[in-house]
Amino acid sequence: MKIQRILTVSIVLLALNTSLVQANDVVVGVAGPATGQYAAFYDQIIHGAKAATEVINAAGGVNGNKVVLDIQDDACDPKQAVAVANKFAAQKPAVVIGHFCSSSAIPASEIYADAGIPMIASAASSPTITERGLANVFRTSGRDDLSAVVAYNAIIKQKLGTKIAIINDKSTYGRGLADNVKAGLNAAGVQEVVFDSLTQGEKDFSTLISKLKFANVDLVFFGGYFAEGGLLVRQAREQGLKATFMGGDGMASSEFASIAGAAGDGFLFTFYPDPRNNPKAADIVKKFRDSGYEPEGYTLYTYAAIQAYAKAAEDAKSFDGNKVSKALHSGTFNTVIGEMKFDKKGDPSTEPFIIYTWEGGKYKPLI
Amino acid sequence: MGYFLQQTINGLTLGAIYGLVALGYTMVYGIVGMINFAHGEIYMIGAFISLIAFTALGLVGITWVPLAILLVLVIAVLFTAVYGWAVERIAYRPLRRSFRLAPLISAIGMSIFLQNYVQVLQGARTRSLPQMLSGGFTLWETEGFSVQVTFIQICIVILTFCLMGLLYHAVEKTRFGRSQRACEQDMEMAGMTGINVSRTISITFMVGAALAAAAGLMTTLYYGSVDFFIGFLAGVKAFTAAVLGGIGSIPGAMVGGLFIGLVEAYWGGYVSGAYKDVSVFAVLILVLTIRPTGLFGRPHMEKV
């Protein structure tokens, strides 16, 4: 009996001690959809985070401490995001990079505000995220209202279409983007002929496409993600709808090309200026490519988020959430996306969106 | 008029897929009196197997479309029927003598299991297939709107008719069909007259799964995109179709499927795409309140 007791106690002690994180490590939480339709985007984020962590650790870490990533899955679902946020609030990482989806970032950020943990989003684009007066919320990505501005300005100035349809996927991001584009167009005196929505996860859009065809639409603005956008344009071309399609940064994934195939050519979308073209980022980009990964989409924005955090923590000479948040607000950061500051709301000072077009499985800026 | 015709074509194609899945629900309910909630997932597995088979055939070099479709149909039907059989053996047969709710809960559990099984094996992302069969022809040109029918849509309708014909022949004219109808009417007596009830039930599940596999193949062909979650919504809508047509009735399931497809198409086309799914479920509520036995169902009579 005594031996059994000793064994049990030793096993319990061992189990309690199997944490891989040492007491001095800086834990950086990363939250996003590891499962679900948008896992492809999370891949970009994780690659960016891992690469930045490696480089920072190789240079001695932050304030002398090693950076360790804690990657969590919120499935782009607000309920799961709250669970992840509560978990982080209990474990108190130094910062959370995320969440990917705006609908997750908004509830999670409130929990982080209560817990005093800074949150830096590298992709979530809903304006609401930084509009609530929370001092600990930042982002390196742009906002949908700016994305919408670029979109509707382009539609008006470049006369991309006369009969315009605006479709959204009923998500926080998609609906927000579509509403902003509608407001902008209407304010400029342009009325859309169709304003409708579809359901995420659905595959059959033939009914919607026929409706658009009947209305003789020549430009379709779609607020949503690539899974539906790719199917939408593919089915449109099958039915003979020749309209130009346009979307937001939700289209910026190579999976779009595999879903839409040749039908995806000419699909316009707004996205951040490609950091890969920044000459200062050249060696970081080369490092990614040498390791066999193309740093598309949000990869480099995540990299920049971690760079900014590292510098802010060094400026504040501490890991205390509130002090680092102050340092993030006041500092200037030399990151892979350029030299940047965060404004009072937490939005980045980098250039907003430009228009890209999909062509042959790759996207390039539309001149 | 042209627009109405186009939405009708869209609706019928969609309805054909729902109808094939609904047949599985209705056949299982007819024979064992339970709703097979895992059937939507069987359809999803059929779609995945079709996708894998198409890709594999492409790699081997078989690209002539009619041949590829036939081969994939055979492969998908075979593999999915095995899944259907396995689901019955693992989740339902042990519970046959148990209380009414047990196989139902087991079915839900099986559905969750299959979803996660595919998610783990195939990944959570959407898988896509490049366009296999493109092009169509213009049926009618009117007032600036051209009614298009694609070859895939024609393929789907023809395939559905053939399968319905095969099923009708199987149920009315073959020995299996006779055993199945006997088990539907009275399982105990059928057992006493020498029919192997367990085997008939297994074969019914397999036939249902085979039809779902065909529906999955059509989904892969038509949309070119599958993910692990398509079984859920399609399963619920097909269940609605089965209830609408009269659960337990085979022609009812097909008619119900087409009806649901048309409701979706007309609502999405004329009212609003936003509440398309709501319209389908509103139909379900209406049917259950006004005529619970469905269009073709007969009220259940107990002879004393």
Class from helix and strand fractions of chain B: mainly alpha
Q: End-to-end distance of chain B, in Å?
A: 54 Å
The CATH architecture classification of chain B is Orthogonal Bundle
Mean pLDDT over the full residue set of chain B: 89
Count of distinct structural domains of chain B: 1
Q: Determine and state the CATH class of chain B.
A: Mainly Alpha
Biggest β-sheet: strands ordered side by side in the sheet of chain B: 1-4
Strand content of chain B: 5-15%
Overall geometry of chain B comes to: globular
Q: Which class of secondary structure composition applies to the elements of chain A?
A: alpha/beta
Number of helices of chain B: 11
Task: Give an account of the 3D structure.
Chain B: It is a multi-pass membrane protein. Chain B: It is found in: Cell inner membrane. Chain B: It holds the Pfam family BPD_transp_2. The complex is a heterodimer of chains A (367) and B (304). Chain A is built from 12 helices and 14 strands. With 367 residues, chain A is of the alpha/beta class. Chain A has helices at 2-16, 39-58, 78-91, 102-115, 144-157, 172-187, 206-214, 226-239, 254-260, 282-290, 299-316, 321-330; strands at 26-32, 67-73, 95-97, 119-121, 137-139, 164-168, 194-197, 219-223, 244-247, 268-271, 332-335, 338-341, 354-359, 362-365. In chain A, the strands form 3 sheets. In chain A, strands 7-6-8-9-10-13-14 form a 7-stranded mixed sheet. In chain A, β13 and β14 form a beta hairpin. With 304 residues, chain B is mainly α. Chain B has a single domain (1-290), classed as Orthogonal Bundle (ABC transporter involved in vitamin B12 uptake, BtuC), CATH 1.10.3470. In chain B, 73% of the residues lie in helices and 6% in strands. Chain B has helices at 2-32, 39-60, 65-92, 101-122, 151-173, 175-185, 187-192, 197-223, 230-245, 250-271, 276-290; strands spanning 127-128, 136-142, 145-150, 225-226. A two-stranded antiparallel sheet of chain B has the order 1-4. A two-stranded antiparallel ribbon of chain B has the order 2-3. The model of chain B has no long low-confidence stretch (mean pLDDT 89). Chains A and B meet through α7, α8 and α9 of A and α1, β3 and α10 of B.
